[in-house]
Amino acid sequence: MIYDAAIIGGGAAGLFCAITAGRRGRKVVVLEHNPEVGRKILISGGGRCNFTNINTRPENFVSQNPHFAKSALAGFSPQDFVEIVQKHRIPYYEKTLGQLFCRDTSRSIVEMLLSECRAARVEVRTSCTINSVRGGDGFVIDTSGGEIRAKALVVACGGRSFPKIGATDLGYRLARQFGLEIIKTRPSLVAMILSKGASSTLAGVSMDAEVSTGKAHFRENILFTHRGLSGPAILQISNYWQKAKDIVLDLLPDEQEVDLLEHARNSNKTAVNFVAERLPRRFAEIYIAGRYPDLPLSKMKPDERAGFAHDLKHWSVRFRDTEGWDRAEVTLGGVSTDELSSQTMESKKVAGLYFIGEVVDVTGWLGGYTFQWAWAS
Predict the structure, then answer these.
(1) pLDDT bucket at 309, cuts 50 / 70 / 90
(2) Cβ neighbour number for residue 10 with a 10 Å cutoff
(3) What mean pLDDT is reported for the chain?
(4) Chain center to CA of 230
(5) What does residue 93 show for φ and ψ, rounded to 5 degrees?
(6) Residue 194 forms beta bridges with which residues?
(7) What was the pLDDT predicted at 290?
(8) Which ranges constitute the DSSP H helices of 184-256?
């Protein structure tokens, strides 16, 4: 038997591609090496699957080519996916910033996708390991379950994040085998390790902050860990982090620096007590104590007060590294978009070979964007 399309990877992108092709009358097989499909879907969103973001725009994605995602995103919108969710009567809600979550569990989305696969007559094979792939007249995939032949091959096996649920570098190896360029990969949407100044006594402290580097800036919570920083704002900025550059945190985003300086000039409180009125006391006592004189702010030297106000609005930190693949939600980098058609996701070098989803050098922000790229691509 020769399939019209073989899809390597039974995650979000692979299953949705299979559904789309099956609806068009193609004979499709999905090959998943885990015992069940959709493992990353199941653990996403704290088990509730943040399946899309209603505010999705091309600007919410990081890529060497920021225009590449436009075509796919325009062709399949968040509302298009929401209509399928509604058809299956899956209850959902909007959390914050346009993020849509299941009210029940992520398994609802996996079951929805499998139901759509059955309706589209898609064959799904689990516990199916890929040994090798050969091109030529179509594709021959040697698997643990035997040889499979297909006219088209879709690589949808994701990136390297979450190896404990089966993530591998298979997609990149296949791309290299067929001569495609890979943009260097690294963990992203991930907690960061401070180069210096990490304090385990601050672990667990969280606060609202605006975090920025270059033109990228995000305002959400930050969370201190034993080795550095985490929280939504840090995960977001990790997409833009460069090892040699500082990340700047505005710890009081609702106050202007000039107003903060004026309040400090007229305050009889010490720096620690002044900060403790606005931020968690533990942070004030550990981070602020020792940095500034133990005097009322009004009695500090003007340049000391100015430095104090500036530091609260422009706290520069440098990260040594990320917390690694085990903690990363996504992979930054991947198959170069220069190698693919933005209209079809087909390789420009090898007819019938496609790369979709996270394996491609298109990385979504935190908040449902990665799933929307999976559906759209």
Answers:
(1) very high
(2) 29
(3) 96
(4) 14
(5) -150, 160
(6) 319
(7) 80
(8) 232-237
Model pLDDT, residue 287: 86
How far apart (Å, rounded) are the C-alpha atoms in residues 8 and 130? 8
Q: How far apart, in Å, are the Cα atoms of 76 and each of 103, 271, 284, 357?
A: 23, 52, 47, 14
- Residue keyed to tokens 């990385």: 363
Strand, helix or coil at 133? Answer: strand
pTM for the full model?
Answer: 0.94
Q: SS3 for 221?
A: strand
Report how far apart, in Å, the C-alpha atoms of 147 and of each of 36, 142, 280 are: 21, 5, 60
Mean pLDDT of 346-354: 98
Residue 12 · residue 41 · CB < 8 Å: yes
Residue type at 111 in one-letter notation: E
Which residues are registered as beta bridge partners of 100? 52, 94
Residue 199 scores a pLDDT above 80: no
Cross-strand pairs, 182: 335
Which ranges constitute the DSSP H helices of the chain? 12-23, 39-43, 70-75, 78-87, 107-119, 170-177, 232-237, 257-265, 271-276, 281-283, 302-313, 369-376
What is the token pair recorded at 283?
């942070």
The residue with tokens 């992979």 is 331
Structure-token pair, residue 177? 């085998």
Identify any residues that bridge with 209 across adjacent strands, giving them in sequence order.
Answer: 220
What's the full length of the chain, in residues? 377
Angle between helices 302-313 and 257-265 (to 10 degrees): 140
Report residue 262: phi and psi, to 5°: -65, -45
Least confident stretch, 79-83, 292-296, 367-371: 292-296
Contact 312, 252 (CB under 8 A): yes
Q: How confident is the model at residue 314 (pLDDT cuts 50, 70, 90)?
A: very high
Average pLDDT on 36-59 reads 96
Q: Could you tell me where the DSSP H helices lie in 192-252?
A: 232-237
Query: What percent of the chain is predicted at pLDDT more than 90?
Result: 94
